[in-house]
## 1
Amino acid sequence: MHLVIIGNGITGVTAACTARRLNASARITLVSAESAHHYSRPALMYLYLGHLRYADVKPYEDWFWAENRLELVHAEATGVDTAARTVQLATGQVLAYDRLLLATGSVVRTADWPGQQLRGVQGFYGLPDLERMARATQGIGHAVVVGGGLIGVELAEMLHSRGIRVTWLVREQRYWQSVLPPEEAALLTAHIRRHGIDLRLATELREVLGDAQGRVRAVLTTTGQELPAGWVGLATGVTPNLALAQAAGLATDRGILVNELLEASVPGVYAAGDCAQHRQPAPGEVAVEQLWYTGRMQGETVAHTLCGQPTPYRRGQWFNSAKFFSLEYQTYGRVPAQAGADTASFCWQHPSGRHLLRLNFRLSDHAVTGVNALGLRQRQAVWERWLGEQTPIGTVVAQLAAANFDAEFSRQHEPAIRRAFARQFPAIPLAGRPRRRGLFGAWPG
Ligand SMILES: Cc1cc2nc3c(=O)[nH]c(=O)nc-3n(C[C@H](O)[C@H](O)[C@H](O)COP(=O)(O)OP(=O)(O)OC[C@H]3O[C@@H](n4cnc5c(N)ncnc54)[C@H](O)[C@@H]3O)c2cc1C
């Protein structure tokens, strides 16, 4: 069997490694236009910050691929003939496949702003973007970041680390309003501003202004201000990369449409990771998952099917994490920006404005349904267990220290959280002894 995988991101590489483990004799070829070897996309910012070198963000040594008989082709795939089962490459080479996996990831989404083609205006997704950004931001004094998601905060931190003054335009009234409840949004807004970022809410980009050489010099906002800018980062989201799938005539919507086995609309062709869209997502799950860990899970799952062990994709508990400058954010389960009518939401904040814990639970049976933690590191295994077992909120609050992943010597907030919970929900008993916290107090079993 010849398995051809387009894209060497986390999805494609996980699929290749898993397929090799499951099938020692298969021929496996990984095609990538972006980089010769796989690297960690979420770690890109640390290259700019100077914390890591490129070699540090490659999880596998360069000899790993030949050692595991994974053939690497550094080229763009320009077409797929699904009837002949061949992939055309920009180099003129044609690869015949028995099974094809599209793991083509995402592309930066932009609006049609006047001036966005000026030099010094760009999105941020991959290595070429990082290289462009590093060149274009040398020696500049001011930059503007447009768009309030997780890539926006990374860009703000990167620029700030080089002493560049950053104005950050966020369209919504509240920071990351579609995802975060108001308290989390307010805490993060204050935290980001404390780091010297000029975060402007309810403000959009109207136009990018250039100089005589075709380089950006300023932006105009919808609030009528002209802001100096030697560089503009467009962080207004990403969208599945459908170019190859559409050229191949596959069924697409927002992403490449797949069933639960991650099969696309043509026999022998599969899609996974950022570029895929589940035809029938389970209740409460999203159709397009654009996360590192879901890419890895989809890659692992689809490899089983590709190797003759049909395996439906089941994501399990929702999980995400990010870092906002020094503040860590973790979320497990479901914590919508606004809790539904069947849900109670308890939110504790430390007076310093540097720690927050939100616990959501069902009103009917008090089962915990989700957690947001800011500045409080939580153990994934404990939360997966609590959510999976629909643990009563009283037990969760009483045993909260079991989920604490902060170092042994850092301050313990659980007693304050328990007291605040008991004040707000006096009728809910806190069941069970408080458990030991920290690295050596791991949840048993
Ligand atoms: C800056 C940044 C930071 C992020 N941080 C986080 C984070 O902290 N946590 C998190 O969960 N997620 C994060 N994400 C999202 C996460 O990186 C993606 O969800 C994940 O990388 C998707 O993996 P993938 O393998 O599906 O696609 P990708 O990583 O996009 O890989 C697809 C690859 O396919 C290549 N390709 C596409 N078309 C072709 C073609 N025709 N021919 C050849 N090659 C092709 C592309 O060039 C690309 O290299 C971040 C994303 C970015 C951009």
Note: The pocket of flavin-adenine dinucleotide is lined by residues 6-12, 31-34, 41-42, 44, 76-77, 103-106, 124-126, 151, 154, 241, 244, 273-274, 290-293, 295, 322 (CB under 6 Å).
## 2
Amino acid sequence: MRSVSGENLVQLLTPEGTRAAGPYDEWVADIDGARLQGLYEDMVVVRRVDQEATALQRQGELALWPPLLGQEAAQIGSGRALRKDDFVFSSYRENGVAYCRGADYTDMIRVWRGNAPSGWDPYEINMATPQVIIGAQALHATGYAMATKFDGADSVAVAYFGDGATSQGDVNEAMVFAASFQAPVVFFCQNNQWAISEPVTLQAQRDIADRAPGFGIPSVRVDGNDVLGCMAVTREALDRARSGGGPSFIEAVTYRMGPHTTADDPTRYRDPNELEDWKGRDPIDRLAKLLEAEGLLAGDFTDRVNAKADEVAGLLRHGCVTLPEPGELDVFNNVYTTPHPVLERQREHYSRYLASFEAAGGGKR
Ligand SMILES: Cc1ncc(C[n+]2csc(CCOP(=O)(O)OP(=O)(O)O)c2C)c(N)n1
């Protein structure tokens, strides 16, 4: 059984909330008390976003939601390491990263409400809209990184994906290209232990991070519930990419504490003791312990963080329930930039189908 707290794991903040010294310290030397408080606020807010969206799904306001509960440190630590002109290619679970990029809350949920085929304008926040095809975004990120290199820019592309995605051809093909072209791309794998009901131990006989060196890509394993560790290794990888050192692979060892999506029931395949073990490694609790020990978790700070979380949750809920209903034929818009005969035929069929209800007396569809 592979360790989740072993010697090969970068860890700067222990589950007990103490700082663990190590060679990666220099990468977070600027993270003073105020910045630690900022990371704590981010994690509390994105957990609240996640809880609010989950509640909205349970209340029938969203069709589906992919929770990030437990993965806040991996997403905030890495997300806050990025520069504005870096470009993120994520899966559906990186709502914490989207928060760091400045995504509008309504844009985060319009797809999950079924109101739109996509959420935000990628070029406004330098983050592509979430990819549901497992691992495809690794190729997109690599292509983008190759282009940045050809353009002579020093921005970096970051691909976020899960442990399951590393078994997809796309991720492996992306690594071949990234290594061949020394593309400035960071592969950030959140190993949350499960690919829906498949445990990581089934698909990986060795650490996920061991795969990348076979492609010629340096890799690191980090405690994914340690926000400082995640920030440090991401900063190092970004620095390598910016300075011409090519791609890097990060395995953030974390845990999906909730279901895969709100349509999933993990009690059918997961040992409840496993969840209990991971609760002891909660990413927010451990930073709270450190802040408390340093006298930085005083009442007014906690009040401000909670007020911010309430405000964001309120904006998310308001944006969700006030989204205008899309037009009946809107689904056919913006699929292709130029007219497409197959799509036109489908639009026409669907129009006739809708009209048939009118012909039958305008009954409810
Ligand atoms: C190419 C492809 N195959 C299968 C699926 C169905 N699918 C959706 S999520 C998922 C599991 C992904 O697990 P992982 O990559 O570990 O990411 P996580 O959901 O744990 O964040 C699968 C197989 C898909 N969306 N795309």
Note: Strands lie at 9-10, 87-89, 157-162, 185-191, 194-195, 198-199, 219-223, 248-253.
## 3
Amino acid sequence: MRRLLGPALTILLGAAFVALIGWLLHQQPSPAAVAVPHQGAADSHHVYLHLATYPDSMAGEHGKDGGAEPDWVSYGPTTTLNVPRHSLVTVTISQYDGGEAITNPWFARVHGTVGGSETVDGKTVTGVDPEAVGHTFTIHAAPTAQDPLFVSVPLPAVPDEAPPAAGSDYPKPIEVTFSFRTKGPGKYVWNCEFPCGDGTYAKFGGPMSTRGYMSGTLTVT
Ligand SMILES: [Cu+2]
């Protein structure tokens, strides 16, 4: 019995930690201006989202001066996403940031998208090199009464030596596109699963654990 207690306790503590992170993500206030970045398409059941990942927070929802933490990596233009129910959602992410080896190579694979794939600069792939990941976009669904929604796509790293693009502070981005289908209405959280935060919590601190940088909400309306 005592021998079983150790692993059981570990699992329990792990589950409690995951629950705590989920609760913390839900507790942080959303940005005041709640943007609805999906553009109305000709077919109302197919919407588009355009996001970007930056090596700092000067281009997203924190304003041009970067707000409180200008050096933190961020998603933009907003981390508050709204998409309609029973729809096809096509997301394009312009990835401007560098990266390195991902801790968990499972997140270097594509999960939960239409066709189980994404395109990287136009090329269809089911995963990227786990040694060169910039960020991931990972929608989580806690087991609740709402419809499950799990999508995770890796965003390859922009090479460190890439020069800034003309007229930009950032290099030419890597364009990642994928689609997923929504079911019924629900509230979900998403985050990056590449530990790109500060040194606390195995690099899951700072921008990784603060709403509006490497995490946000996705509301299916
Ligand atoms: Cu990240």
Note: The two ends are 48 Å apart (CA to CA).
## 4
Amino acid sequence: MRIEIIDPDRCVGCEICMLACVRRQGFAGLAKSKIAVHSSGGMEKGFTVLVCRACSDPPCAAVCPTNALEVRKDGGVNLISEKCIGCKNCVEACTVNSIFWDNEANKPNICIYCGFCAMNCPHHVLYFNKEWGKENV
Ligand code: SF4
Ligand code: SF4
């Protein structure tokens, strides 16, 4: 499974994907979002969507000193929260800048590949690929 950004040009920066992610976890606000939308310089220059790409050989897991990020067979990682010591090595290592920090928990916001962001994007920027990586499971 993974979230694919199929047409970034269609993003209007509404942040509904972020809200959907946070609501899915039972929170309000945006601080616990596992997906981010950055302005590239206003409506004219568009927006960049950052989300875990479910790497098959994830560098975040490789640098974690406590093995708190467990590599999934179908791509990406699971956070084993109790093992995380909050060092932020994973944030630094992510090659697509898609590990965000939960200041309250002092732990990374790791995508759980639920697909809510993609399902709620009104502009069809995102696609929830349920089949991706299944051959490895
Ligand atoms: S797949 Fe789920 S956890 Fe991951 S960014 Fe989208 S809504 Fe959040
Ligand atoms: S912040 Fe937590 S999950 Fe990330 S590398 Fe450090 S111990 Fe591992």
Note: The first strand starts at residue 2 and ends at 5.
